[in-house]
Amino acid sequence: MRVGIIVLILSYLLSQFYRAFLAVLAPVLSQDLGATPQMLASASGGWFLAFAVMQLPVGAALDRFGPRRTTALLLAIAALGAALFAMATGPQSIRWAMILIGMGCSSVLMASYFIFARLYSPAVFGSLAGLVIAVGSLGNIAASLPLTWAVGLMGWRGALWALSGLTLFAAAAILALVRDPPRTEGSAQGSVLDLLRLPALWPILVMMAACYAPAAGLRGLWIGPWYADVFGADTGRIGQVTLIMGLAMVAGNMAYGPMERLLCSRKWLIFGGNTLMLVSLVGLWARPDVDSGRTLVLLAGVGLFGASFPMVMAHGRAFLPPHLTGRGVSLINLFGIGTAGLMQMATGRLFSALQDGAAGPTAAYQGIFAAYIALVGLGLAIYLLSKDRTD
Questions:
Q1: Distances from the Cα of 389 to the Cαs of 122, 331, 384, in angstroms?
Q2: Which of 102, 142, 197, 278 gives 50 a disulfide partner, CB atoms 3.0 to 4.6 angstroms apart?
Q3: How far apart are alpha carbons 145 and 50 in whole angstroms?
Q4: So where are the chain's domains?
Q5: Strand, coil or helix: what is 292?
Q6: C-alpha–C-alpha distance, residues 66 and 68, integer Å
Q7: Are 102 and 46 in contact (CB under 8 A)?
Q8: Handedness of CA 39, 44, 46, 47 (dihedral sign)
């Protein structure tokens, strides 16, 4: 089982890579295919929405068929999407490729969480969940400077073909090495509706919707166009900035678990961390036209404090009945990933509207920061109604 978990965690590197690599490819895709920031926002949003839509069937499949077959099949679809991206002839091809990749990556993290929830104590779920994302976030880092070097070496099409082959290899490794945990009594019974009848879960779902979207949106998409349009940054500079934010996200995922044990609270840890992310977003909104050490610190703050995803998942996991574990973790994930995708598309439209007006690019990016500020503020207000639970 340990070997299988290691394979799943390494495969999750690919999921993190695919959700973040467009920020680095933005300049070259604009030059080669005429992809505008709004088009890339739509493609990135398509990845997140496809990922989100798949969460309900993925949850049912995990409970019914187990993580091995579910994840191997879907990851093969991601390999197909990467191959389509490598052959893209325009922005529309990229969008369809990203949709396929999003579908294919939709079960990797949930498969790990499903195994943890079945085999390990709820008290350590948050730490294990954070560890998976922290290691997987190395894929986020690979989508920064390493991707820049790979594109320089073999071109962006060659890099995508290599990724397609690597993804297909990961699918085969999962099929060969992952072992499904023992089934629980009634594991094929129940539905998402049973979960939605749990009042304690709703504030946590709202917090999940608010906490993940800013870091995912900025790191996965908007850093590239922002630095290129406002600061005239090249691919190398964008790679450096995305690397800094990616490292901060890794550190945040590693820190939330130990902090929970120190504070003996999930609710107030999540609330405090996301309040600090909100402060960082406000700082970026106030001066989006300055490329300085202060800007990098604030971006790192969004990544560090916005890495509460696994802790929010652990908070929600504490209220799930055992026979609905797969559906439960997938439902919580749907709120996080789905909102991230919707925000990608919404901020893309907002950017286009502001840029086409008299505001100019700086004000357009300021509008994006304002949208994320509003989302996090609303999420924090509703999350105050949640019940704390630390197992």
A1: 11, 19, 13
A2: 102
A3: 27
A4: 2-180+191-383
A5: coil
A6: 6
A7: yes
A8: positive
Fold of 2-180+191-383: Growth Hormone; Chain: A; (1.20.1250)
CA distance 112 to 122: 14
The two structure tokens encoding residue 108:
């990797």
Structure tokens at 97: 């490729």
Q: How far is CA 64 from CA 90, 346, 391, in A?
A: 39, 35, 27
Contact 249, 304 (CB under 8 A): yes
More confident residue, 135 or 356: 135
Q: What is the DSSP string of 213-254?
A: HHHHHIIIIIHHHHHHHHH---HHHHHHHHHHHHHHHHHHHH
Q: Are 386 and 204 in contact (CB under 8 A)?
A: yes
One-letter amino acid at 205 equals L
How many other CB atoms sit within 10 Å of the CB of residue 137?
27
- DSSP of 349-377, one letter per residue? HHHHHHHHTTSHHHHHHHHHHHHHHHHHH
Output the six-digit token pair for 77.
């679809």
State the average pLDDT for the chain.
Answer: 86
pLDDT category, 185, cuts 50, 70, 90?
low
The SS3 assignment for 272 reads helix
Phi, psi for 197 (deg, rounded to 5): -85, 0
How far is Cα 70 from Cα 356, in angstroms, rounded to an integer? 44
